[in-house]
Amino acid sequence: MENLTGRVAVVTGAASGIGRGMTEAFIAEGMKVVLADVEQGALDATTKELSSQGAEVVGVECDVSKPESVDALAKAALDAFGAVHVLCNNAGVAGGGTGPSWERPLDDWDWVFGVNLMGVVHGIKSFVPILLEQDDEGHIVNTASIAGLINGGGTYGVSKHAVVALSESLFGELAQLGPKIGVSVLCPGWVNTRIIESERNRPEAPREISDDQAPQAEAMRKIVTDLIQNGLDPRDVGNTVAEAIRVRRFYILTHDWQAMVEHRMQNILQGRDPVGTMPPGMAEGVSALLSSS
Ligand SMILES: NC(=O)c1ccc[n+]([C@@H]2O[C@H](COP(=O)([O-])OP(=O)(O)OC[C@H]3O[C@@H](n4cnc5c(N)ncnc54)[C@H](O)[C@@H]3O)[C@@H](O)[C@H]2O)c1
Question: How far apart are CA 187 and CA 240, in angstroms?
Answer without folding.
Answer: 11
